[in-house]
Automatic annotation (TrEMBL):
Domain EamA positions: 141-275
Top-rank lineage group of the source organism: Bacteria
Keyword Methyltransferase on entry: no
Keyword annotations of the record: Cell inner membrane, Cell membrane, Lipid A biosynthesis, Lipid biosynthesis, Lipid metabolism, Lipopolysaccharide biosynthesis, Membrane, Transmembrane, Transmembrane helix
Gene3D superfamilies: 1.10.3730.20
Subcellular location, principal: membrane
Transmembrane feature ranges: 6-23, 30-51, 57-80, 87-108, 114-134, 141-158, 170-189, 209-226, 232-252, 259-277
Cellular localisation: Cell membrane
Name of the protein in question: DMT family transporter
Stretch forming the signal peptide: none
Membrane-topology descriptor: Multi-pass membrane protein
Organism: Rhizobium croatiense
Length: 278
């Protein structure tokens, strides 16, 4: 994998960890997740006029992605309510690249080298190691996290293929971001009432805008990278976001870091090195 692709995916991983921290810090995780999604759509709007429309073959993938992204944000909020981030985040982000690596040969006909597969496995092992440090969790949190790993793997495939068919990965990313917040806010309003939603948006719109811009930029970089390298490799490299999440948890949230947290960081870094050498 070229060094410039690696560096841009790593930057995207940093942005991903940042918007997850915004959701985790919020008082209403479901509405904050919807705000993040809406912030991504608002950030995308000014650029649409300057980019070509995705090719017609990509539009079914944009629609499918919107449904999967809706499910993803719902499961993110539910999992964070059910368990500690030290358990939930590693399970969600660590299982997804393993699922993709195990199935990409069948789905995408992509053959991974032994070194690339070793790098993917190493990164995933490092991410899953963090679950050993979790202090709080439940069976429900585990089920929700693993279910979301399947959703993540599914939309990674959908968007990886869609970005390639679109002719322009950036355009695909921006158009893909428009529908999920409509679904999320419509669902929230039907369940909790429009007044509750409007009040939350008025108080926290800036959180959604900042987090949404980071979210759409992070995913856009990943989709661009998927047009330059195998989807499974990019998906695994993107999970280095957990390293940045660890730094944020200690520096911002003042959480205590145990030996497993630092060991996982070393293992993930080793996996990135293996991918670079693959």
């Amino acid at each position: 994998m070229p060094l410039d692709v690696i560096l841009l995916v790593l930057f995207g991983a940093l942005l991903h960890a940042t918007w997850n921290a915004i959701v985790k810090a919020g008082s209403d995780k479901s509405l904050d997740a919807a705000l993040i999604s809406a912030g991504g759509a608002v950030s995308a709007l000014p650029f649409l006029a300057f980019l070509p429309l995705p090719q017609s073959a990509a539009w079914p993938f944009i629609g499918a992605s919107a449904i999967l992204q809706f499910a993803y944000f719902q499961l993110v909020a539910a999992a964070y309510r059910a368990g500690d981030i030290g358990l939930v985040y590693p399970l969600m982000r660590g299982c997804a690249p393993l699922l993709i690596a195990a199935t990409s040969g069948v789905v995408l006909r992509e053959d991974l080298s032994g070194a690339a597969l070793a790098g993917i496995m190493t990164i995933s092992a490092g991410v899953l190691t963090l679950a050993l440090e979790a202090r709080r969790g439940s069976g429900r949190a585990v089920v929700l996290s693993i279910a979301n790993a399947f959703v993540i793997a599914s939309y990674t495939y959908v968007d990886g293929i869609g970005a390639r068919l679109s002719g322009n990965a950036v355009s695909y990313t921006l158009w893909m971001s428009l529908l999920p917040p409509i679904l999320l806010f419509a669902w929230a309003a039907s369940r909790r009432g429009s007044l509750t939603v409007v009040r939350h948006v008025r108080r926290n719109w800036w959180r959604g805008l900042i987090g949404g811009a980071g979210s759409i930029a992070s995913y856009g970089l990943a989709l661009w990278a998927m047009t330059k390298a195998p989807v499974a490799t990019v998906a695994a490299l993107r999970e280095t976001a957990i390293v940045f999440a660890l730094v944020i948890s200690v520096a911002v949230f003042k959480e205590k870091a145990g030996i497993w947290r630092y060991l996982a960081g070393v293992v993930i870094a080793a996996g990135v090195l293996v991918l670079k050498l693959a």
